[in-house]
Amino acid sequence: MEEMTTGLCPKCGHALQVPVELEQFSCMYCGERLSRQQLLTEPGAEAQPLPEECAAYYDRAVARLGWCVRNFREYQKKILRDAFFEAFETYEASCAPVIRELNSGVSPERQTELLDRAAEAMLDDLSAGWEKKNDMQDEKVVLAIFFVPMVRKLRLPVSEEFAALLQKKWVERYPKSPFYLGDYESISGGFRKKFLGLCFITTAVCQELGKPDDCAELTAFRAFRDGYLASQPDGEALIREYYNIAPGIVTCINTCSDRHATYARIREQYLAPCYEDLLAGRNASCKSRYVQMVRDLEREYLH
C-alpha cells in the first residue's frame, strides 16, 4: 500500500492525503500549490511555509482583504434571526482562507509590523471604493459583524492582533463613525435569546440604564404586547417580524455605534413617548410610535 502523508490545507482547511514521495502538490479543493511542510496537523494550527514563500502568501492575502468586505456589502441585510447563522457560515467559508493565508505569510518576529501594514492597506482599499453616501456605513457593518468576528473565531496566531489593529485604525480615521470589537459567540448568542421581538429593543435600552428586567417600563410594554397588540388584526404578524429583526438592530447598535448615545436617543425619541401613551391608555398611539421606531432603526442599520 502506498504510504501517505495526511494534514490540512493551510488555505482552505480541508483534510488532504498525499503520497509521501511528493514534495509539491496542489490542494484538490482550492487548487493552492503546497509542500508537505505546509500541511497543518490540526484545525487552526500555524502553517509553516518555506521562508521564500512567506512574501507571496502575505501579498496575496493583503490584496484580497478588501474583497472580504466589499464583496459582501449586502450582508447587512442578513443580520436577522432567520438568516444570520447561514450567512455567517457562508461568509466564513469564503473569507477564512484569506486570513489563513495572511497567517501563513506573517513571521512571528515581524508580526506587528506586517499586520499594521495589512490593516492600513485594507482600509485604503475599502475607502477607495466608496462612491455612494452609505457605502462606508454598509461596509463598516460587514466589517464589524462578519469580518472581525470571523477573524477572531479562527483563533490563529494573527487573529487578535490583526482585529485590534484594524479596529484601532478605523476609529482613528473615522472617529465619528466607530465600530467595536465583537466576537462570534457574543453576537450569535444575541440571536438565540428568547425575548419576544416587541420588547427586545426596549429591554436593551432598559439594561443600558441599569434597570431590572421587571422594571415598570418593561412590565408595561410586555402587557401591551400580550394584550392590546396581540389582539390587533396585524398584531401577531408584527410580533413575529420584530422577533426576527430586533436582535440584528440591537447587535448593530452595540457593535457599530456609540451605544450609550444611541440608546439615549431611542429612549428620548421613541420609548419615553410610547410609555407615556401606555400610561394614558393611548394604545393605538403607542403602537404607531413603536412601529415607526422599528422601521427607522431597520432602515438605519439593516438596509
Q: What global shape is seen?
A: elongated
Strand order of the largest sheet: 1-2
Low-confidence stretches: none
Taken in chain order, the helices and strands follow as EEEEHHHHHHHHHHHH
Number of helices: 12
Structural class, judged by helices and strands? Answer: mainly alpha
SS elements, strand count: 4
Short description:
By secondary structure, this protein is mainly α. 62% of the residues lie in helices and 5% in strands.
How would you characterize the overall build of this protein?
The chain has three domains: 1-43, no CATH class; 49-187; 193-302, no CATH class. A hairpin with a 6-residue loop joins strand 1 (4-8) and strand 2. It has helices at residues 54-65, 67-70, 84-105, 111-128, 135-154, 159-173, 184-190, 197-208, 216-231, 235-256, 259-279, 283-302; strands at residues 4-8, 15-19, 24-26, 33-35. It is mostly helical and 303 residues long. The model has no long low-confidence stretch (mean pLDDT 89).
